[in-house]
């Protein structure tokens, strides 16, 4: 197929499109950082990608911005992108010196003409402080500081807080600092650029530096085939809802009242589980804030509206603290019929007997508990208790490795790589994702059920090219260093991998992997600290280490109980320090 280009997008951008314009454009590749204008080429590529993927959702403002950007002279484009990549909206001209852009005024003029830059903006003095060094504060604002009881040696944060509280009005920067040797500009289109960045990445956590890190090899990503269904937002209103939730979260972090934020939150997003998950998490945080303030009724109401994991459990605690035992029991029985996770099941096992006692009801039947084996060691005091235990128990014939959560997760990630990185709609939006967007959502495994079933079926084949050992070794070799939510490459040496493949039974791997898939968020943590291999006997044992005063956490108890139920060799080692 022929390649196509569009005017104004630059020579590095033609590889972003296939000649078939009805198909999805190829994901943009990072420009070489050896090119002085690498950042501009990356920004152009991202804009082109957004324009192709979201043609039907772009509003008039975004279309106009893209057209105007395409028409700008290259120095003006480059200066704009340099500013977009930096933090904030205010810039000093003496800090915008870039050799590849050249003289500043010719680059600034077209941006000023479009209204994208505002020269000498009106600012409160607290923002002026942020533009100045400590020495410049004393030189330009000394009289203002003195008038408000501040000294030049005070911290800038204290100065800003005092002057903001004084409410002494706003003025152009040049009025605050008439003798300053530099000018100040304000960018006026940063919210629009953030919106375009959101469409490209599907989040506001990532920035344009991802292109650079990928080009330098600092971060390497699996290349997932993207389709027209791969975009993060199927509807324009989804973009607006995301931005409203993000704005509420920033206001929450800045200390705004819970009441104001509850009022500002969008309505439930019934047809977009991803957005509703974000909304549910913020509701959970708001409920926690109300709980800390002592407003338990409002906290319980907000927990009831949240889909965030643990919200129902927190609501149960609120009802119990308020002695609303009948309501708590009714909600607990509802949860018991369909627990959201093993963590909630564990909470109910503790809560239900208390509620029954307080309501003078027969106690429920306690679930059987299988305690893991334990051993006790007295060791010389050491910095790391896990390392001390490993050193004591290890031998050439039976080596001990510190693995905690890394080994089982890595084996799962290597065996199931193709399922994890499958191009499921709504999972991958751009070339810089280390994990599918729905990884921690309840539907993650169900949406890939056939793919995971095919991967796990390899555990029934011990040898051969399609056997699980061969697949894991092949993935370890072929995907080495690529970002993964399960494989931490630095923690998985080839020696450790071979010991694991020799000593861990396929039946145990299947049980661990199936448990991971039931709840990735909760179950990829809490695994035992150490593993000891016995290669001659093709056996192993896992060891959870507890130093003096340390106790088992709930997620560790769940993993230990799971291993005990399935007769997996696991010990809890309690350590005391020698006098």
Automatic annotation (TrEMBL):
Gene3D superfamilies on file: 3.40.1350.10
GO BP term (any one): interstrand cross-link repair
Cofactor(s) needed by this chain: Mn(2+); Mg(2+)
Keyword annotations of the record: Hydrolase, Magnesium, Manganese, Metal-binding, Nuclease
First-level EC class: hydrolase
Residue ranges of every copy of the VRR-NUC domain listed in the record: 463-577
Molecular function terms from GO: metal ion binding; nucleic acid binding; phosphodiesterase I activity
Pfam families assigned: FAN1_HTH, VRR_NUC
EC number per UniProt: 3.1.4.1
Taxonomy, superkingdom: Bacteria
UniProt xrefs under InterPro entries: Fan1-like (IPR033315), FAN1-like_WH (IPR049125), tRNA_endonuc-like_dom_sf (IPR011856), VRR_NUC (IPR014883)
Catalytic activity: Hydrolytically removes 5'-nucleotides successively from the 3'-hydroxy termini of 3'-hydroxy-terminated oligonucleotides
The family this protein is said to belong to: Belongs to the FAN1 family.
The name this protein goes by in its record: phosphodiesterase I
Protein species of origin: Chromohalobacter israelensis (strain ATCC BAA-138 / DSM 3043 / CIP 106854 / NCIMB 13768 / 1H11)
């Amino acid at each position: 197929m022929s390649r196509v280009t569009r005017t104004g997008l630059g020579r590095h951008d033609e590889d972003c499109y296939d000649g078939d314009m009805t198909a999805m454009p190829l994901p943009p590749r990072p420009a070489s950082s050896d090119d002085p204008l690498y950042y501009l080429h990356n920004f152009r590529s991202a804009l082109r990608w957004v324009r192709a993927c979201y043609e039907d959702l772009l509003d008039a403002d975004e279309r106009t911005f893209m057209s105007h950007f395409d028409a700008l002279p290259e120095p003006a484009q480059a200066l704009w992108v340099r500013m977009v990549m930096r933090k904030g909206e205010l810039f000093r001209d003496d800090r915008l010196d870039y050799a590849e852009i050249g003289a500043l005024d010719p680059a600034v003029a077209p941006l000023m003409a479009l209204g994208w830059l505002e020269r000498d903006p009106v600012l409160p003095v607290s923002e002026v402080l942020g533009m100045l060094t400590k020495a410049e504060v004393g030189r330009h604002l000394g009289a203002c500081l003195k008038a408000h009881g501040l000294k030049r040696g005070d911290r800038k944060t204290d100065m800003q807080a005092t002057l903001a509280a004084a409410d002494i009005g706003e003025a152009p920067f040049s009025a605050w600092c008439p003798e300053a040797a530099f000018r100040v500009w304000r960018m006026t289109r940063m919210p629009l650029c953030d919106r375009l960045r959101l469409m490209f990445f599907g989040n506001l956590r990532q920035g344009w530096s991802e292109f650079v890190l990928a080009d330098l090899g600092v971060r390497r990503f699996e290349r997932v085939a993207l389709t027209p269904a791969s975009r993060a937002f199927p509807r324009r209103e989804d973009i607006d809802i995301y931005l409203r939730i993000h704005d509420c979260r920033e206001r929450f972090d800045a200390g705004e009242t819970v009441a104001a934020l509850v009022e500002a939150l969008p309505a439930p997003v019934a047809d977009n589980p991803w957005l509703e998950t974000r909304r549910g998490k913020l509701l959970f945080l708001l409920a926690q804030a109300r709980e800390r303030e002592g407003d338990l009724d409002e906290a319980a109401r907000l927990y009831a509206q949240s889909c965030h994991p643990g919200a129902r459990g927190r609501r149960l605690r609120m009802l119990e603290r308020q002695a609303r035992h009948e309501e708590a029991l009714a909600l607990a029985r509802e949860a018991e019929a369909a627990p959201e996770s093993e963590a909630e099941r564990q909470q109910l096992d503790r809560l239900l007997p208390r509620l029954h006692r307080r309501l003078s009801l027969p106690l429920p039947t306690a679930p059987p508990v299988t305690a893991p084996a334990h051993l006790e060691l007295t060791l010389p005091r050491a910095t790391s208790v896990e390392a001390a235990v490993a050193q004591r128990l290890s031998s050439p014939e039976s080596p001990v490795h510190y693995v905690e959560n890394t080994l089982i997760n890595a084996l799962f990630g290597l065996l199931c790589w193709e399922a994890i990185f499958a191009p499921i709609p709504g999972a991958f939006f751009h070339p810089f994702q280390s994990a599918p967007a729905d990884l921690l959502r309840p539907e993650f495994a169900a949406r890939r059920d056939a793919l995971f079933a095919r991967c796990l079926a390899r555990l029934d084949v011990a040898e051969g090219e399609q056997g699980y050992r061969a697949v894991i070794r092949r993935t370890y070799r072929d995907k080495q260093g690529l970002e993964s939510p399960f494989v931490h490459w630095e923690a998985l040496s080839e020696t450790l991998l071979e010991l694991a493949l020799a000593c861990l039974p396929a039946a145990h791997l299947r049980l661990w992997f199936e448990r991971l898939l039931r709840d990735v968020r909760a179950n990829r943590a809490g695994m035992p600290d150490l593993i000891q291999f016995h290669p001659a006997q093709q056996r192993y044992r896992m060891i959870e280490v507890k130093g003096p005063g340390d106790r088992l956490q709930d997620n560790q108890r769940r993993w230990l109980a799971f291993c005990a139920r399935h007769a997996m060799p696991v010990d809890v080692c309690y350590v005391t320090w020698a006098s």
